[in-house]
Amino acid sequence: MFAIVKIAGHQYKVEAGQQLYVSHIEGNAGDKIEIPSVLLVSNEGQLTVGKDVTVKVNAEILGEKQGDKVIAFKMKRRKGFRKKIGHRKLYTKIRIESIA
């Protein structure tokens, strides 16, 4: 059994017991969350799509991690203008506990 869920604007294919990194979700390690936006469910070859989906996906937050540094460097030639800006995106590691 698998499901397609939407978390923070991204779609993920998830199965029970799977661990994955998603865009930052509010909460602490050990918190239980319910993913409300389920787009598709496959149960033994039976596909359920759209508004007919009545399945709940439960997950547990395992921790947080920062992504790689992304650098934006701006420069104007012959003007002496140089600007270096960077950021690191936060990711949350979750484990899918059940699809029911």
Radius of gyration: 19 Å
Which class of secondary structure composition applies to the elements?
Answer: mainly beta
Number of helices: 0
Note the beta-strand portion: over 45%
Helix percent reads: under 10%
Uncertain segments are none
State the end-to-end CA separation: 10 Å
Describe the structure.
The protein is an all-beta fold. The protein has a domain at about 1-65 and about 95-100. The protein is about 0% helix and about 70% strand. It is built from no helices and eight strands. The protein has a four-stranded antiparallel beta sheet, with no helix packed on it. A hairpin with a 2-residue loop joins strand 1 (about 1-5) and strand 2 (about 10-15). It starts with a strand and ends with a strand. The mean pLDDT is about 95.
